[in-house]
Amino acid sequence: MRFLYIAVVIFAVYFLFPLYVLLLIAFSPAKFTIESLYPPLIFKEFTLNNLVYAFTQYDFLHPFIKSLSVATLVGALALLLGIPAGYGLSRLPGSVAYPLIVLLLVTNMVPGMVVAIPISAEFIRLHLFDSVLGLALVQELITLPLATFIMQGTFSAIPREIEYQAKIDGASTLSYFKDVLVPTALPGIIAAFLISWMFSWDEFTYAVILSPIHPTLPVEIYVNITRGNELAAVAFSLVFTVPVVILTLLLQKYLKGEYLTGGVKA
Amino acid sequence: MNSNLRYLLFVIPAIVYVGAFAFYPSFDAVYLSFLNNRGQFTLDNYKELFYFNIYGTIYDTVIVTVGALLIQLLLGLGIASVLTREFAGKRAFSTLTIIPMGVATIVAAIAFSFIFQTAGGYANSLLHLLHLPSVNWYSNTYISLLVVMVSDSWKNTPIVTLILLSGMASIPKDLYYAAALDGAGPVRRFFYVTLPNLKKFIAIALIIRGVSEFNIFALPLVLIGYHPPLLTTLAYELYSTTTVNLSSAAAVILLAFISVLILLNIKLGGGERR
What we know:
The complex is a heterodimer.
Chain A: H1 2-27, H2 49-57, H3 61-91, H4 94-109, H5 112-126, H6 132-156, H7 160-168, H8 173-184, H9 186-202, H10 205-210, H11 217-226, H12 230-250, H13 257-260
Helix pairs in contact in A: 1-12, 2-12, 3-6, 3-9, 3-11, 4-6, 6-9, 7-8, 11-12
Chain B: H1 2-33, H2 44-49, H3 54-83, H4 90-96, H5 99-102, H6 105-115, H7 122-129, H8 141-169, H9 173-181, H10 186-214, H11 218-223, H12 231-241, H13 244-269
Helix pairs in contact in B: 1-13, 3-8, 3-10, 6-8, 8-10, 10-13, 12-13
């Protein structure tokens, strides 16, 4: 039992240390952090000046709005495409559904670089370069398969008998969707939206290539670090990270190995 | 059959989308990589990649992939083993092990760039505290790559842990009781019961993570820049400084390696699902 607790403590320190370093830099005077040769590992002095300085001297608002709009659009698109796809997959026989699932899995593995470089040329032609819609459409690639699998799992748990029952009662397909299926599947739908939102919020590769002029927050943080505005980068990083960590913890239930392996056990 | 067709219609929009935004650009990248500035067929883009030390870049990418996978697998096995036991504070610990999933790659990269700074870094602070000499983290290729591996493993171990946990949950408890009755201690139970039954899950974790490892981009960009370049950072550098065609050629090399992993994954998953 003692070994177990030693392991727990070591792993806990390992997982917390990088975040602790960010907090140290954000809330200590610079002379104890980035200006020191051997920065102390504990708080020597507490200050809010770094945060005030970062948020007044550097543009946080515009990247923040851009990130927010792109992520929300990605979440909406994930539902628009993922709910029907997940429903269809949950009702199709395995022999038809399986190749489609593999197709979606393969999509998830196509390298971002391979997609982004040719698409940037197309987007310039289509006036989608640097736009919210363009970036959201491409980021959807990362989240659509996951959203679809979550929806497929959710719908599989709803017995078909309900569907037959609704038909007998004279419900049209649309009203069956609207009044029966969607409300029953609501927790899965919310999870699919939030997980998609979260992936877009964190996404970097597509954002830096397809939206470099009006960047999203991750790209803005990168730009700040390359320009040597370290305090701004750290301050933005913290504000940027808080909502996602909260979401991750709330969604723990849905971030299961089964979904991550693409329904190997399904 | 008729109703199957109806269900298929629900899936079509997603398939069309995927075709337009994943598969069309992939073919486009291959096509562009064989064109010169005037739109004529050429092999020059691939020849030119040799000036940018493409073999060395591939080699370094493979090293990072293999190294990071090893670290993540070891940590993942350790953490998953801890999480299959019951102890006070287990819930808090399990929450803790998932946190890096919620931290954006770019934020992880920045945190680790402060840890692994040669002057004024927190890793060297720690070494100084223990009266050990400071390390120049960027003095040679291998240390630089190690910094990337360690940082990446922090961010991605939780995914491996989750996959291994779902694998461990699928091992029948009876096997452990039987092994314990036969006098096997925790260590032998791990090697003779847990590991053999986890084989498939380990393989899946390795392939899923292997694909992402090959695509690792934000971390090396922040931590080591273009020295040494990896396949992604090389493609990005070429994209920002040269032509779409040349950078497409670099991206196609990346695609070739990923394709092998994708095929492996399909082969491994085939027949097991459903």
